[in-house]
Amino acid sequence: MRAPASDLPLAFLDVDVSLGGLRILSGISLNISSGAPTVIIGPNGSGKTTLLRAAMGLLLPTNGRITWGGREESPPTRRAIMLQRPVMLRRSVAANIRYALAAAGAPHAGREQRTAELLSLVGLESLADRPARRLSGGEQQRLSLARALARDPDVLLLDEPTASLDPAATKAIEDLVRAVCARDIKVIMATHDLGEAKRLAGEIVLLHRGSVIESGPADAFFAAPKTENAKKFVAGELLI
Q: How many whole angstroms separate alpha carbon 199 and alpha carbon 213?
């Protein structure tokens, strides 16, 4: 069991994020602590990806503040992000992981052992020598997850990791998310899949038009959403 994550709690304090003059996030106030996954849900275009990128430090607030473990400036050395459409390097599966370990500054002497451990964790050990770009979509997502874990993060940000995957590949990714959580890594994940959110979330954040509509424990949210928009979204209605 690792020590409490140094980047937690992750706090958004009345945060706006604008891109190209367009406000994407507006007045976001959240406090994300350790524990079961925090799952960000909402319609396409609601700001889920932008929120994750801001949490990683890839985007700066236009207004407001983001703090990591109470610090406003914190290098993202203990945070990792897995993007929805990861780029596979033009090399083998194992070499993709070795590259990620080198980029993370992992000691050279231990990289082969760590590569083997990560391949085993994501179930790709039998494909270690295959070109990464020849993997299936689900296999590429698992490799992308292994590369993110090469940073040995305390906080793992996942942007729609099962989008466009079939049920078997989706289950494989969800099982990996549970395995990551069992290692005391905080997962913050965006998804459009309400079923996935119900299966994985300890906490729900519902975004709509760049604002937090409702947030709280997942069980309470799905059993009795408090706002009209949350009720509509849980019922499968479109939010306009």
A: 21
Start-to-end CA span in the chain (Å) = 44
Whether residue 239 lies inside any domain: the answer is: no
The count of domains in the chain is 1
Identify the pLDDT of residue 74: 83
In 3D space, the residue among 135, 153, 52, 49 whose CA is nearest the CA of residue 96 turns out to be 135
Across 8-58, the runs of DSSP E, i.e. the strands, are 10-19, 22-32, 38-41
Domain residues for 62? 10-234
* Any domain includes 3: no
Tokens of 240: 């306009």
Residue 5 belongs to a domain? no
pTM metric for this prediction? 0.94
Read off the CATH number of the domain in which 37 is found.
3.40.50.300
What are the E-state strand segments in 73-223? Answer: 79-82, 155-159, 186-190, 203-208, 211-217
Assign residue 193 a region (left: φ > 0; alpha: ψ between -120 and 50; beta: otherwise): beta
What tens digit of pLDDT does each residue of 124-161 get?
A: 999 999 999 999 999 999 999 999 999 999 999 999 99
- For tokens 């507006």, name the residue: 26
Task: Give the distance, in angstroms, between the CA of residue 217 and the centroid of all CA atoms in the same chain.
Answer: 18
Residue 167 belongs to a domain: yes
Per the document, the length of the chain is 240
Q: Which H/E stretch holds residue 42?
A: none
Helix (H) or strand (E) holding 3: none
CB 171 within 8 A of CB 117: no
